[in-house]
Every structure is written in structure tokens, then in C-alpha cells.
Design brief:
single chain, globular
């Protein structure tokens, strides 16, 4: 994070604590994604169920960070970059909470898939999850470090997820055409891939908000990701 000097040390401490809480929430959400994929690959019913049950932690952190951000806005009436930082934190928690929900959705599909024989080796989905988790980590790092270049890199990485999702869709479509009995399992795997694609979209949202926070410029509706801002 770029150094900021404030006359109120309590205010400075609150801003630092806001960053730490966001890091805690992002780290927990990333772990939820990892657990969901592990539960899929290892057909681990207990891990899938535990991951679903732990969603309440994500919801609690979402509420706490929102309350802290609103308190900072009300008590200190920040301006300029501090205002953008706090409002960005409010938006980031929304994306993180939705990522947590998507990890839960993955585990629900995992529990359904575990009731039937495995359709195919799980190679594409773990790769998609790896890219999505990387994008999430980088987007949060970009927020903490106020790193526009890293944020733009995250936006560009979204294309890799889309490509992997397209490859998996074509493969599963072949399964469904050749093996009608596989349709239900294939559709559930397509849902899992879609959830991972949406996780990457949320990471991209966070990265785009970082650009706005640092530069005061929106890149959300551009046709392509700029090389610099």
C-alpha cells in the first residue's frame, strides 16, 4: 500500500485494519475454492459438506468489513483517494462474498457427482481453478499495493479461463452426444466450470476497481484491456 500520512493515528490504524480484514476474507475465500476442487478430484463428501458449512465465515466477514467501511465514511468523511479506497473495499467484499457462494455451489454439484461413477479424469477443472485462484490473489495484491499494472494483468488473464472453459465444453458435449447416459454428469461438470469462470469474472471486477481506486478512471466497459492507464 502506498504510504499515506494522516493527522489522526486512529484513522490510519482503521485503514490498515480494513486492509487486513480484506486479506483475511480473500484468503478464506481462496481456501474455499481450493477445498471445493479438492472435494471434486478426491470425491471427498466430508470436505464438500464442510466447505458448505464454512460459508457462514465468509458472510460474517462480509458484514464486518461493510460495517467498518461505513463507520469510516461516517466518522471521518474521507476525501479523494481515501474515499475511493473505502468505497472500493465495500465493493470488493461483495465480489468476495459471491465467490464464496460459488465455492458452495461447486460443492453442491460435487455431492451430486459423487453419487455416480466418475465421468472423466479431472484435468481441465483443476487447471481452471488454479488460474482463477491466481487471479483472485493478484487482484487482492493489486488492491493492497495499489498496483495498476498488476490489476491490468489480472484483466488480461481472464481470457485463459474463457479458453479453458470453451475446451471443456466441447469435450463434454462430445461425451453427451456419444454417451446419452452421461448427460446428467456432464451438465453438472459444466456447471462447475461455469462457477469457476464466474469466479474469474469477480476477480476481474476487483482488478478493475483497483484501477479506478488508484487512477480515478473506469475501464469496466472498454472493448479491450489497455496496456496502461
Amino acid at each position: 500500500m502506498n504510504a499515506r500520512q494522516h493527522t489522526d493515528p486512529h484513522y490510519e490504524a482503521e485503514l490498515k485494519d480494513l486492509h487486513l480484514r480484506l486479506l483475511e476474507m480473500a484468503g478464506f475465500v481462496e481456501k474455499q475454492i481450493a477445498n471445493a476442487v479438492q472435494a471434486l478430484v478426491e470425491r471427498d463428501e466430508d470436505l464438500a459438506r464442510l466447505t458448505i458449512e464454512r460459508d457462514h465465515v465468509v458472510n460474517r466477514l462480509d458484514v464486518e468489513i461493510d460495517e467498518q467501511s461505513i463507520r469510516l465514511l461516517a466518522l471521518h468523511q474521507p476525501a479523494a483517494r481515501d474515499l475511493r479506497l473505502i468505497t472500493t473495499a465495500l465493493k470488493i467484499t461483495t465480489d468476495l462474498e459471491r465467490i464464496g457462494d460459488l465455492a458452495v455451489n461447486m460443492c453442491e454439484r460435487v455431492r451430486e457427482l459423487n453419487t455416480e461413477a466418475q465421468l472423466k479424469p479431472y484435468i481441465d477443472i483443476p487447471r481452471m481453478a488454479e488460474v482463477a485462484q491466481k487471479m483472485l490473489r493478484e487482484s487482492i495484491d493489486a488492491f493492497v499495493r495499489e498496483d495498476v499494472d498488476l490489476a491490468l494483468q489480472v484483466c488480461r488473464e481472464d481470457d485463459e479461463i474463457d479458453e479453458l472453459n470453451g475446451q471443456l465444453f466441447r469435450e463434454l458435449l462430445s461425451y453427451m452426444m456419444e454417451q446419452p447416459a452421461s448427460v446428467t454428469r456432464a451438465i453438472r461438470l459444466l456447471f462447475v466450470a461455469k462457477y469457476l469462470e464466474r469466479i474469474a469474472d469477480h476477480a476481474t471486477n476487483i482488478a478493475e476497481m483497483v484501477v479506478y481506486m488508484v487512477k480515478g478512471k473506469s475501464i469496466r466497459h472498454l472493448d479491450h484491456v489497455p496496456q496502461s492507464v
